[in-house]
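Team,

Forwarding the record for the chain on the shared tracking sheet. I've put the sequence and predicted structure together so nobody has to dig through attachments.
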Amino acid sequence: MSAEPTTKIDKTAVLAVVVAALGYLVDIYDLILFSVVRRPSLEGLGVPAADILDVGVRLINFQMIGMLVGGVAWGALGDRRGRLSVLFGSILMYSLANIANGFVQDIESYAWLRLIAGVGLAGELGAGITLVSEMLPASKRGIGTTIVAGVGICGALIAVVVSWLVSWRAAYWIGGGMGLVLLTLRVGVLESGIFQNRKESRIARGNFFALFANMGRARRYIAVVLSGLPIWFAVGILVTLASEISGPNGLQMSPAPEVGTAVLMIYSGLAIGDFASGAISQLWKSRRRVLFAFILANAVAIAAYFTVGATSVIAFHACVFLLGIANGYWAMFVTVAAEQFGTNLRATAATTAPNFVRGALVPMNMAFLALVPSVGPVGAAIIIGSVVAVIAFVAVFGIDETFGKDLDYLEE
């Protein structure tokens, strides 16, 4: 059984929360920056206006494929070598990749650098949440992970503001620079005591396929991944492709909403929703009930996006803000992923699950492009959003309740 105190939080745990939160802030800045600078960067590289949607989706897909690969690799490394090696290694990788993004001169280089950045971006959140979860007492764990996610989400707001103030190339350089500065905080951050105590065990660590070794484990993992799908549907399609959905072939709004403002609104909502989901979880003493509530709220917000949001730009941005609040259970989602599994698979689960959710944007984008010719961008988004919402709601039934669960154990 764990020897950790039930309520006391020491300084090393506080520092871990701070570093994980700032790391995730830079992570989200770099992750969302392409969505913000998609049009100006592609126009700057000479992509014709008619090709911007297809080329943009291709680059997003490259980034998401990188995150899928990175999620598996960083997750295994986190359980084998430790949480800190992933936390700081991933920050270094995505920082250097994003600095390089500011120097690209052609689409092919841009695509491959987005893939490399995606690999780097895949590791920070899972490692940070795992480290914080293992260092905080069970009664305070949800608060710590909520702070990490809530502060981190603000990175998107910074990305939008920076993109308004400087060129798209400079925006990439600033993001990479912030990551390199963050690495100086490595001094003083300690490895998880739970990991240190268990690392000499003969039980295999960091084996991704061990998540599917039995039906119960596989059920929990798949259910966790599916429960997070609505979040990246909202960010990756309803917001990133807002200009296409609201344009002449979609909602026919004039003027059309600006993507940067939409990103600002949804991430403002996500930050509020993340703090709210964590607080509600502490109040209800439940993870599952919070997931159910937010997924239902998401369905309502999507309906408002296509109805009320279509009436004016102000209404559209207001609905996007509400959509962000409704999808603000990302902190709870990653926390649940970490809490479902033992110490030898915890980083693997917490790192791969969010990246499989992000990677699910690839088939969602493919489905969107395939449906647009027959039902238009609005019809395509409604169909995909409806399917995703139903899948997520049903998936929560397969997740174990983990509020207050002791995490000091191994998966046999």
